[in-house]
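Hey forum,

I'm writing up a methods section and want to include a predicted complex as supplementary material. The small molecule is zinc ion. I've pasted the protein sequence and the SMILES. Can someone with a working setup run it? I'll credit the forum in the acknowledgements.
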Amino acid sequence: MAKRVYELWKGNNIFLCGGRLIFGPDAKSLFVTVSLIVVPVIIFCIFVARHLIHHFPSYNAGYAVLVVAIAFTIYVLILLFLTSARDPGIVPRNSHPPEEEFSYDNSSHTPGLQFPRTKEVTVNGMQVKVKYCDTCMLYRPPRCSHCSICNNCVERFDHHCPWVGQCIGQRNYRFFFMFVSSSTLLCIYVFAMSALHIKFLMDDDYPTVWKAMKHSPAAVALMIYCFVSLWFVGGLTGFHLYLISTNQTTYENFRYRSDSRPNYYNQGCINNFVEVFCTEVKPSRNNFKAFVKEEQQTRAPPVSFRQAPAEEDEPPCGPPRAKVEDDLEIGDDLLKISRRRDFEEVGDEELRSVISENVPGSNSDRV
Ligand SMILES: [Zn+2]
Ligand SMILES: [Zn+2]
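Reply by user p_vandermeer:
Happy to help. Structure tokens for the complex are below, copy them as they are.
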């Protein structure tokens, strides 16, 4: 029976709902993250917001404190889901090395396949080196990196976030940033409302801060929790604001900071923000629900000795090719013949011998 792409997936991802949702291998940490958000908010609603309701009697405005907390939490959880459950920008693997990247070395007596580890592509008029990924068998597009946790090449790879259990890349960076910055606002909100609760207690029956705090330990605990969390999520928000304004990824920032490499992607602060927040999210390059065609696994490609110029950004991801090494060998020999200056003098004999040597049972008369 034909299998679906996600069932034969070579990365370490976890799929749910028949391949509709894709998580990283450490998606279980989501339970921790969700409880770190939801538990404090529940405590806030029960022990703080419930009392604040009565302090704003006009138009029942006090209920807004509760509604805002709940609505904002739901919003943060949706952003977390959007970051965590979608394809972060995985570049589909090739099942064979890209044929056109082999270079044919005629100088040596035993012509072997030379496989360049890097190649140069042009980005904004500048030459950028891109590396070949052995696992995915492709030249990584610029800014793409291989996540060792998920075992996938991810476009505009930022980092692998253990809290959301997913890579942060091209397709979920926006949601990740919105999640982190909204969490910061939620922290500030809960902190401020808890402080307000203490203030009202002091105004009413508890004249000193100490007495008021003793009366509502939940508010104190929330304020400490939010204060500590703020350093984390607030710091992360500030760091990513800096990264966005200079169009860097976390990976690039950590990797190339010491190299003082030029930043090829910086288009000015405003354009950098527009790029992250106002451009359309690229559609996924993977259709996890699609059936894997059987012919893709067995079909042999035609002999090709074309040395095509490499596609600049898009790594070749044509149909998988079987027996590619044999074919390349034939192609190599044929190429050598075709390259000889005295090509006219090469008789059918030589061509026939090449074919019959390499293809067992081939009918040389057909050449
Ligand atoms: Zn890779
Ligand atoms: Zn990852």
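Some notes you might quote in the supplement: Residues 202 and 210 are 9 Å apart (CA to CA). The chain has two domains: 5-89+157-277, 99-134+301-366.
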